[in-house]
Amino acid sequence: METTSLAEDITIYCTTADDFPGGVLEAFQRLHRLVPFSTDRSYISISRPENRGNILYRPGATEITEGEFKDLPLEKFAVKRGNYLCKRVQDFRSDVARIQEAFAELLKHPNIDPQGYCVEIYESEDNVMCLVRLLD
Known about the structure:
Elements: E1 2-6, E2 10-14, H1 24-34, E3 43-50, E4 54-61, E5 75-79, E6 82-89, H2 97-106, E7 118-122, E8 128-133
């Protein structure tokens, strides 16, 4: 584990999985049907327990040009700036469960922000950075 800092909020536009973890793949597919792939775009997902403890999972993407998603059925969300505890998962496609394992480890830290989210920043098609925000 390491710590990293987000200097500013990151605005993402996301869709919500109908179920977790069962609906995650379908939610990603829905996002990719709406948002054209680009290496200039960041892909960031957020999740946390809501609605009586059920985990809501939201895969998202950043805009390349301001307003490009204004007519799409996507929810706007700001990943808050601040300090984050981080664990990188290399080659996650070979064993997707390693992402959940990374978050299980990160969430044991005593100083995580209870109002924060689990954040996945996809660094490439195969590597993801898993983050949880620390208290200020």
